[in-house]
Write a structure and sequence with these properties.
With about 325 residues, the protein is of the alpha/beta class. About 40% of the residues lie in helices and about 20% in strands. It has a five-stranded mixed beta sheet, with helices on both faces. A five-stranded mixed beta sheet has the order 8-7-6-9-10. The protein is globular. Bound molecules: 5'-O-[(R)-(carboxyoxy)(hydroxy)phosphoryl]adenosine and zinc ion.
Length: about 325
């Protein structure tokens, strides 16, 4: 079985991981703090930070795995989707390393990798066909996974991604970026007593822009009466935002189960770390829900190496002339 180095650089995390025989030997992630002061990822700064991080992160992943680069059988990297400047760094580094070691390159779709992470050797594995729900800062997709090679997007967001909805709500509440984890933490101390607007989007697509406007208008109106409204009600505001977002996600998932008759459900992406979403899914005894371990929910390179391993088996290798793809279909 191969030893594969995975490299991920699609957004603001520089990550490298080593996979051997389907087991993760190391999974190193360098987060970029620089974006916090801007309340969101600044693409140009992300690309520059990837340049600084990529060599130490790969070095650390190899050292932690106790693997010499000469032992690698392939380099798998994120081809897309993502920020082009960020992707280019991982793309160029992976190509150079593969050429220098004379080993194959493997191109991975980041969104597919968020779902294929469930096939790590020691995790409970979803049975085909299953429904994939990828909920991250940049994407929100419902995916029908017939098998490894046949994945079809059956619903996606028409505007903001679900993580973006958490982050934008958090920004209005004065929370640091990314706000999802803070909202999750504060919501535990609050009561979801405020009603925010839920979107009326047909079929399996999502929309979160109306919720954003609803929060904004609510805050504006309340702050006219009480200038300290946010500070005085922060926990309840977080609980209300979170409950609204989680119920939107669960409603769509319920519709997808009804439409497809499939009750095997696997989650992926940063928002699948959300405790209320996890609890709501685990409480549903009619579905078989697969939640990734927290270390594999947010962007990481272990998922890239795992997705790469499937392609390695089939000899499905990448090309030196492939270029980073900001959008990438399945
Ligand atoms: O998958 P990810 O690491 O990066 C992207 O590909 O975007 O997801 C990051 C997103 C951010 O929007 C962050 O606020 C959200 O995941 N997130 C959470 C939680 N942890 C991370 N959202 C809600 N609750 C959490 N516990
Ligand atoms: Zn992601």
């Amino acid at each position: 079985m191969p030893i594969i180095l995975g490299i991920e650089s699609s957004c603001d995390d520089t990550a490298a991981a080593v996979l051997k025989d389907g087991s993760i030997l190391s999974n190193v992630i360098a987060n970029q703090q620089i974006h916090e002061q801007y309340g969101g990822v600044v693409p140009e700064l992300a690309a520059r930070a990837h340049l600084q991080n990529i060599v130490p992160v790969v070095d650390q992943a190899l050292a932690q795995a106790n693997i010499d680069k000469k032992d690698l059988h392939a380099v798998a990297y994120t081809l897309g989707p993502g920020l082009v400047g960020s992707l280019l760094v991982g793309n160029s580094f992976a190509k150079s390393l593969a050429i220098s070691l004379n080993i194959p390159l493997i191109e991975v779709n980041h969104m597919q990798a968020h779902l294929l992470v469930h096939f790590e050797k020691d995790l409970p594995q979803p049975k085909f066909p299953f429904l994939g729900l990828t909920v991250s800062g940049g994407h929100t997709q419902l995916v029908l996974v017939e098998d490894i090679d046949h994945m079809k997007v059956i619903g996606e967001t028409l505007d903001d991604a679900v993580g973006e909805a958490f982050d934008k709500a958090g920004k209005m509440l004065g929370l640091p970026y990314p706000s999802g984890p803070s909202i999750d933490r504060l919501a535990k101390k609050g009561v979801a007593r405020i009603d925010f607007a839920k979107p009326k989007v047909s079929d399996l697509d999502f929309s979160f822009s109306g919720l954003k406007t609803s929060i904004l208008y609510h805050l504006r109106a309340k702050q006219k009466e009480d200038s300290q409204y946010i500070a005085n009600n922060l926990n309840d505001l977080c609980a209300s935002v979170q409950t609204t977002i989680v119920s939107i996600v669960i409603e769509k998932l319920t519709s997808a189960v009804k439409q497809t008759g499939i009750t095997e459900i696997a989650l992926g992406g940063g928002v699948s770390a959300n405790s209320e979403l996890r609890n709501a899914l685990m409480a549903n005894k009619e579905w078989n829900v697969y939640l990734p371990p927290l270390s594999l929910t947010t962007d990481n390179a272990a998922m890239i190496a795992l997705a790469g391993a499937f392609k390695f088996e089939k000899g499905n290798f990448g090309q030196l002339h492939s270029h980073a793809q900001s959008r990438m279909s399945f």
